[in-house]
Write a structure and sequence with these properties.
The chain has 154 residues and is α+β, with helices and mostly antiparallel strands. The protein is 56% helix and 21% strand. It contains six helices and five strands, in the order H-H-H-E-H-E-E-H-E-E-H. A five-stranded antiparallel sheet has the order 1-5-4-3-2. Strand 4 and strand 5 form a beta hairpin. Helix 4 packs across helix 6. The chain is elongated, with a radius of gyration of 21 Å. It starts with a helix and ends with a helix.
Length: 154
């Protein structure tokens, strides 16, 4: 269900961005305001563009969101403070914490909006560390920093 909701969100996000760009081009005079001259094929091209957005939006959640394993030799009780401190340095605040999962959300309203409120980072606790899930770029950036901080090189 989460995948379907993300796909629908991204379809509307892509449609909104395209509309804003087209309106900006028309407002600045770089494009004519007539759909028939703006697109090859006129208004029928809008359906082709929408079909393309459906295709991209149906694939994007699979590509844009990942899980990444971080191995830590210490237990969660030992690394909890370091992890929460690191996330706070990166403008993430603790949203919820249970025995198995810990979730963080971004503090900044603008960053949350640009990520379409898909800014949640979820840590699933495991025996030998945890698995991080979220937006690809955020997970790569945060997991690399956390791995460095939690597993200092000798």
């Amino acid at each position: 269900m989460k995948y379907l909701i993300r796909s629908i969100k991204y379809f509307f996000y892509f449609a909104f961005l395209t509309t804003v760009i087209i309106l900006a081009l028309v407002a600045t005079g770089l494009a004519e305001g007539d759909i028939d001259t703006m697109f090859r094929g006129g208004a029928s091209a809008i359906w082709k563009i929408a079909a393309f957005f459906v295709l991209v939006a149906s694939v994007y959640p699979k590509v844009g969101f990942i899980r990444r394993k971080i191995q830590v030799e210490r237990g969660w009780d030992e690394i909890r403070g370091l992890t929460i401190g690191y996330m706070q340095e990166r403008q993430y605040e603790l949203e919820s914490e249970s025995r198995e999962t810990v979730t963080f959300r971004h503090r900044g309203a603008l960053n949350r909006l640009t990520r379409m409120y898909e800014d949640r980072i979820t840590l699933t606790l495991q025996e030998d560390g945890f698995e991080m899930e979220g937006l690809r770029k955020d997970v790569f950036r945060i997991s690399a920093g956390l791995d460095y901080r939690l597993n200092p090189q000798q």
